[in-house]
Amino acid sequence: MMGDLGKKLVDGLLADLRNLSAEAKKKYPVVRQAAEGSVLKIRTISAKEEDTAAAISAANLEVLQPLVLGCDSRCPRLVQISLTSIQRLISHRAVSEAGAEQIVAVLWGLMEAGMEELKVLQTILVLITMSGNLHHDPLAKAIVVCFRLHFSKDSSVANTAAATVQQVVSVVFERLVVEDGDDNPNTVNSEVKEKTTSSPRPGKKPPVSLGPCAADAYLLFQDLCQLVNADSPYWLVGMTEMTRTFGLELVENILTQFSPVFFRHPEFSFLLKERVCPLVIKLFSPNIKFQQNVAAPSTATTAEKPYFPISMRLLRLVYALISNYYTLLMTECEIFLSLLVKFLDADKPSWQRVLAVEVLHKICVQPNMLRCFCQSYDMKQHSTKVFRDLNAAVGSYIQTLFLLAPANSASSGGSSQSGSQGTGSDSNPPAVLGGLPVSGGTTPPPAFEYRGMWIPLLFHASAGVAKPTFLEMLDKTDPPVIPEGYGLSVAFACLLDCVRSISTIISDILPQQPGGKLPKIGKNKSKQFVIPSSPQQLEPADQQLCETLATSSWTSVLAALSLLLDSSMDESATQSILQAIQTFASICGQLGLTVPRDAFVTTLCKACLPPHYALTILNTPGLAAVSKERGLMRTSSKDSSSQHVHNSTLGDQVVAVGTSLPTTSSSASAQVMLTVKNIQCMRSLLDMAHCHGPILGTAWHLVLTTLQHLVWVLGLKPAAGGSLKASTTDAPNAVLTTTVLTDLPVLSNMLSRLFESSQYLDEVAIHHLIDALSKLSQESMDAALANREPSLFPVAKLLETGLVNLNRAEILWRPVTAHLLEVSQHSHGQLRDWGAEAITQLVKAALAHDYEPPLKDNKKLQGLLLTPLQELCQSSHVDVRQKQLDCVLQVLQNNGDNLGHAWPVILEVLGAATDQGEALIRTAFQSLQLVVTDFLPAMPSVCLQVCITVATRFGLQKRELNISLTSIGLLWNISDFLYQNNEKIRSDLEQDYEQPSTTTGEKSLLGPSDSLWMCLYSRLADLCVDSRPAVRKSACQTLFSTIQAHGAQLEATTWETVLWQVLFPLLDRVKAATGQVEKEDDKQSSNNTNILIHHSRDTAEKQWAETRVLTLAGVARVFCHRRQALALLDGYPRAWALLLEHVESASLSPSSEVSVAALHSFQELLVGDQVPDAVSKTDGQEQAEQEASDDQNRLWSNAWRVWYGIGTSCTVLPQPGEVPVVPSQQFLATLVQIFPPLFKHISHRFVASDLDKFAKVVQTAVSVPVHADASPFLIPLGGLDSNLSPLQDSVLRAVEGLQKAISVGPELMQAMYPAVFDLLLTFVQYSCQPPKYGTLETRSTNGPDRNSQVKLPGKVQWVTLNYSPFSEKSLVVVVDLYKKTACHKVVIQESVLEKIIKVVRLPLGLKYACPSSSMWKLAAQSLLQVLEVGLPVARQPTNAPAFSTMWTQLGLALDDFLFSKHPAPPTLSVEQHQKDEAIDVQMVELMRQDILPHADNIPAQFTRKIISLLNKGSIHSTTFGIPEGDMLVRLRENFSRVCFQTLLEYSLATGENSAGGGITKLALTAFLQRAQDVLVKYTQDERLSGKLPLPRHRMTEVTFVLRAVTTLLTSLKVTAADRVDAAVWNQAIQLYPALVECVTSSSPQLSEALRETLHLYADLLAPPQRPPVADISTPARRPEPKE
What we know:
The chain has 72 helices and 14 strands. The chain is mainly α. Among the domains are: 110 residues, no CATH class; 155 residues, no CATH class; 189 residues, no CATH class; 236 residues; 143 residues, no CATH class. Strand 9 and strand 10 form a beta hairpin. Helix 18 packs across helix 21. It comes from Branchiostoma belcheri (Amphioxus). Keywords: Protein transport, Transport. This is Protein MON2 homolog.
């Protein structure tokens, strides 16, 4: 079944045929019959065929027959019905090729008959459009029908035919396009280029290579060219007439709409090249040759003049050729463009120039076309510079409009052309006042005004859109009237679009790097800008293209734009011009074309300033070329200046008046007026710098110079952060209108946004910006040097630029801060202040900026940021340094926790302030205190050393003593921090310590943590030698407290460094400083201080002495407390020896304070912590033990050597003539006190020679006197009860310790007992024989007159000590020691007992003449004690040789003591006498008990000496003549009695021992002789006394003798006869007469005793019986008492 379309077709045809049949029923039967047959045929087809249209097309002739007959009938009704039905068939595509030919023939007939022209045209159009079967001649015939109808007299038919022709032509080419397919290339290929030169000749036959549709189009286009050229057509047979204008329109439409056809088919390209182009050139001839201002020849015809319709259509055709086929017609387009440029010549009619400008405008809005022109022509060496000429032509046209408008007031182009640019009077607006357009209450229209020439601006064309007016006047036959200003308006738009196109081309070529979204500036919206790549990144061809585009056009473009900008009186037009200038400057900048860029920038900058003012400050090389291009060179600068002043004054409204900026070249300040246009240009300049900053390069200097002058004139002054604020106080001469006052905040904001947008600039651009600001600033600095007020604009904007670019500080920091540092050194106060403020603000902001990675982890960046702050230390200006330190304090308060690696710079800045004044020092120290108290944990461990150094510098500064002292406290705080955080610091430092160290080799041996400690110790050591005593004292205390408290953390190698680089150098420095001090200078220096000083520290000598004491004591304490660690060092022996040398040196110092303190240090070294027994001992290694022991021995041997050296050096006996140097008692006591602890270490190797050395030292020390002035404080005047002096006590303690060590020591050491006895006995002798100290004259305090000696004044200044207590104590020690060692072999051999007896003999002999009464008594008691122990030893037969001489000394000692030559003093009391006598009795008792009983073991001579002493003692009373009274006591009655009793006892003794008999005989002989003498004497005295009784003691003596005789006789009676010598009996019997003489005594007591005695004589009257001789030979012996 047929579809809906087929049914509709059938129904329509049937209806049409029925109508046709009905109309032709009567008049045209043939038509009716044919119609009926067709109806039958259609019905048959519709019933059988599904594809009705195809079936009908197949039977087309039968179906069309009634329709053709109907048209041939010329019956209007039938023709209408037939044409309608034909159209129906055509529309349903039911017409075959034959049918189409038949239909064309029918339509041709109707055309000739003049019937239904519109219907015919409609049918032809439908036929050609809907049917693809119409080709070749039928198609040509159909087209000819349309052409012929176009020239119908009926205008409606003619117009319809014209439209139909145009549509038909288009359809023909559209069919070609369909035939070619969808692939329609837009560019010519190589095949086209090859065949365009070898195509067939023109004719009726198309090229065989073309298809049907292509052939039709080819023939049609060929004939159109023929017709336009006034030639006969080849294909369109039957054409009777043709207009050139219509032909040009058709050709233009074809070329415009179907350009791909000409690129695809060489045949068409050939027609284009061989037919169209020559035709155009031919038709251009009248237009080119005509010159308006030259009179035409009389023979000239009208055709030779330019004809507007043809000229206009030619230009349209040229544009079509250029725009669509410039790649195919290179040479032809070059010609067309050159011709087009000539159309703009000033001698051409104005309408012709306007048409050319409109064409150029259409060309300029197509960037690709301009690019091709440049590549095809301008870039070729020997080709016309078409692109350059186009731009030059537009620019020249604009310039000529201002210069030639009055001359072109006449109409151009013949009498029918009345349009012109206007007359001379029309050059001004309708209403003028002083040359300015005015209107009541209205705004002047947009216009340009230059040198009195006023040209209105009629419209503002949209960017990139060309809307020509006169090119579209296809219905005009006469030249139109050109409105005034139209040409300039089009040229202005053309110029702007040309700039835009150039920008588009270059932007498409240059690879863009996305920059970022700019912040708003002024009233403009946010803009997106890109950072162009360097031209070097382009391909060479692209780079050449871009550069050619710019270089070929910039001079003409800039010339035109600058002229337009100067003359513009419309804000919108001015803005467009400014935008174009910005764009072209950006282009040049992107391409690296500095001269063009600078020329455009300069033009913009000059527009911002009044002309006369701009000329003085702006001048670039590109401006000369621009002026030359403009062709407007002024005749004189005076005319130019006056003209510009006129324009500025009258053409623009003055909105601001200010003073000019003083420069180095201009000193006087002139008045400057700014107009509205100046402010607008300033905005544009800001916008350009804001959006195109990356390409400005060196032009930044021009921009910023202009802005600086504008800012100065407007009175904007820098504020905090670098922004600008309006200030009426700083700019009192500025006069600003309300408009400007309102805009000032906006302009200030724009300026700030400009420099804020610098954060989007690339590295090169930001450097250019900074360099420009720096140059401006340098100019301001130079001006300031010339005593002119400087501009702060560049410094403020440098600050602002730096603040917004902190995210890339690595790029700009150095140039910005380097210049600001120069500014901060300037002599001008305000400049210098701003420079320092800028630097400090930048540093603070940079440190507070959020970086990635964080700033504290970026050591390099931190160092970079803080370098300018550090370099401010070089400034000599106090205000700059104050800002620097204030900045540091704020940085610490705000960013102290995040400084990281920046700490060294911060600390260095603080340290540098120590060389400044007090105010700066205080400010810096405040920051340092903050650092130490709050930020040590936040500080990297590697920076702690710098912190220590800086704190030390504050300690060393001399201006603020309190700060110096406080800084030492900070060092202590640092040491405490190091101790508490030791592990963390160590780990942190070890991480950094892996890198190569730059320290010296010696320091590199230390660990990182220990190096830190070393730095602390070294710095404190430096403070220890400061010139101020308070600082030295505090530093010394802190140093050694630190070492003592925290030294446990140091490694062994570090201790060695501490010793050799800190402690010993410190000792050397202090020693050297102490030695160089002179008392006079020191007194003066000490008086300069403000501190009240005690008299003990009132000289530098005393103060340095205190320092030396502190340092030596501190080092000694270190050795004591850290001995275990130090002993592990290889250099410990050397250190020990060196320390002892310092001790020895200090001990011998003239200062008693130093010497005593040195000994205390020595003592502390000896009594401190003990060295381990085996420092280097390892288990099981005896050799190591031995080596350790040897090392210790050497150490203590060295100490012993030093002690002995001190002792001998300080006790050198003064020689005659020398000033005596006498050590103090305190010094000597301390020296001796050192020996006991020292002896503990050397006891195992202490030998006799060492003991001798010790004895020599102590003997001399004890003998040292004291000064008379000091004696009251050391020598008590209490006499005998005085205690020991400290020195004496120390000596005895030392000896006591020595003897204890000897007692437990080996045999070799015990051999030193005699030496010890000798030393002690020497001390014993001092009581009676005080020692001499060389030749020094002294007064003694020993003896009874010592008090008077001390009190008596005299020349003697030295006083010896009271040695009695010392000697007594020494004697006690001797006795105790002897008791312990009496039996020792060495003691026996060395006759120690004899030495003791010899020594005590002296005080015993002196007795009451002894200096100390207690001494002889102690000596007696000591002798008794010694003899009690020593006599049993001496009586041993084996020891007899050793004691052979002792008995003599003992006898002499007893004799000297018992019978002293020094009587008791008269003042001696009875009680004291009895006590003294008791001592004598003790001596007798000694003889009685310990000597006489052992006579057998005692030398006989000594025994006789004893008996003699007893005898002498018993008769003592007879040897003195003593007066009456208590003489019995004085004569030692008890002593005599004991002597007599002892003598009697041994006289009556009996025993078996023959030796005992010897003693008895001696005793009896002595006794009986003693009794004989007493009795005889008594008898004589009694007789002489008469009746007077004898003294009681005489009577007592006689009574005692009588009783003793009684006792003796009684004993003799009981003794064996053989035991009693006959001589004894003889003496006893001889005594009898004396007894008888005594019977006359009247004393009852005597009489009683005498009676008892005489009774005993009764037994003696007869001799006794003798025993046998044998019995007598063996007498009994008394047993010998045991020891």
